[in-house]
Input
Amino acid sequence: MLVSGREILQAAKKGGYAVGAFNLNNMEILQAIIEAAEEEKSPVILQASQGALKYAGIEYIAGLARIAAEKATVPIALNLDHGTSFEQVVKCVRHGFTAVMIDGSQLPFEENIAIVQKVVEVAHPNNVSVEAELGKIGGVEDDIVVDEREATFTNPDEAAEFAERTKCDALAVAIGTAHGPYRGEPKLDLERLKVISTKTDVPLVLHGASGVPDEAIKIARQYVSKINIDTELRIAFSKAVADFLRENPNEIDPRKILGPAKAAMKEVVRAKMRLFGSAGQA
Ligand code: G3H
Ligand code: 13P
Ligand code: ZN
Output
């Protein structure tokens, strides 16, 4: 069933577990996520980035997700990932998304607050939840030197003020994770995450979670309610396709080529659901 992001986040916060948010770009990725959620009896958040909407078209993404959610027995939310414009958010609300992220993290504090407030105003009356971001979660390619890195982290007092003034439903925080594959082992400021969680009741979100060691996730999941995974799905997908074509160089049937990729992504999703503690919670 398709439910508001708020419902999933609040249940996770109350139950002391985190829900995985997995990025989809096509039908096979969607089916891998949904089948995993059904088998693990886990709530799940589907999310589409602006790039995914450009690639597949918003009608396809919204339509596919609605069909999948209608058939499924577990709670499912559909989220816009890293939305950067008010117009994009409105479009997603009109197309039946049940959650949106407005990423104003590149804006000065007051401007970030203002755009989140504007989004909350249109989203909440439609029962659509709003995720915001404070601090900068860069990409691993950003090459920020260590001293500068801390300056991009979320300030706990600002996070509390931000959540209070914006009335957002979820807050993405910067504590050392980054999008994309990590070069070495990521060093997370888990103490900061804990402090943020004591200063505000808003459900927290961990982005860039692909490649973060399980031990760090087990600590983080005590303080966050949503954990984003994209890169590990991409790696599973492309490795399975490459392996299959190496072993079957004459195969031309897309169903046969993509079947193993779907199975590989499903295993990644299942493992994350167990690790995040959402398995068995639906
Ligand atoms: O946060 C970024 C997600 O991995 C989506 O990436 O913008 O390339 O679709 P994308
Ligand atoms: P990864 O690509 O590092 O898994 O991050 C995903 C993400 O944060 C999507 O918003
Ligand atoms: Zn992200």
Notes: The first helix runs from residue 5 to 15. The chain has one domain: 5-276. The beta strands are 19-23, 44-49, 76-83, 99-102, 129-134, 170-173, 204-206, 226-229. The chain has a mean pLDDT of 96.
